[in-house]
Specification:
By secondary structure, the chain is an alpha/beta fold. The protein has 12 helices and 13 strands. An 8-stranded mixed sheet has the order 3-4-2-1-5-6-8-7, with helices on one face. The protein folds into 2 domains: 164 residues; 167 residues, Glycogen Phosphorylase B (Rossmann fold, 3-Layer(aba) Sandwich).
Length: 354
Amino acid sequence: MRVAKRCDIYCRVVDNFGDIGVLWRLARQLGDEFGWRVRLVVDDLTAFHAIEPTINDKKPQQWCGKTEVFAWKCPPIGDFVDVVIEGFGCQLPQGVVGAIAAQHPKPHWLNLEYLSAENWVREHHLLPSQHPQLGMTKTFFFPGFVAGTGGLLRERVVQPPPPPLPMQAPLKVLLFAYDLPSSASVAKVLADSTRVAVVSVPTGALAKRLLAIRLPKLDVTAFVPQREFDALLTSFDLLLVRGEDSFIRAMWTGKPFVWQIYPQDDRAHWPKLEAFLDIYCVGLAAPAARSLRALWHLANGIQANPAASEPPACLWEDYLRHLPEIAAHAHRWTTAQMKKPDLASNLVAWVLRL
């Protein structure tokens, strides 16, 4: 059995910060907790710099903590490596593929996929795929919420959340959302509510949109580095977050949250959102579950039957009525998820079994 300690991770930043956010967390955890020597290859160092200010976006090769970082245009080629992680099907540079194919013994080649709660994920987790020319095997590694998947990113320092407090006082709400009409609709409902003290929005396109319409109770805050983001989340009562990395971090707080999934033109994100809601709402009373779903649908611009839809303000007021129950459920869900093995531990265990 070969103990894997040298790992290369490849990341293309498709949009926003989700891809690099996930893979940067994984790189740090593999180095900090498992002693792996990790190299991270990124095609957009400017986006990386936004979440990790110590990164010099003009420097093609550098160290950030225990992780060696390379620009995509000059990946490390020729050095022995135990594991190659292809982030979200980003397609490795051709020179890299040739180099790892020539290596003996060959490295474990993983494609870390996007997070999904859909039923097919368990069937596809750890499925091998043979390269048609090189004869190498690439294995698909799927994060997930249930047994039989790769689990969720969670460092050892993440502790179970404290019991939820009564939510009687005016709420502090974080709105970290995409710049979409649905985001502005939610923001207006929150700002008009007497139960909301402040709507905090990180600087960016959505903040500009909301400032232009002079939304009350708006607090435009600085975009914080990833290392400060988790602590920031705990300072709010309700979290409306976007993408994959922020979604999981909001969940670990144990607080009530709303997930705005990455929108796709063909509405392929709708089934993914519903798949998560189906498992998340288990154990939640039907009226509270309907209210939770309605607010999540509003934030994601989902209107299956627009003619029958309630006004956004009514959806929000109904959500507030069920908020104590939803908050208690959020805490139970997080506590249960934290009892499961995390993604990095599952990945390392799989590699070491081979």
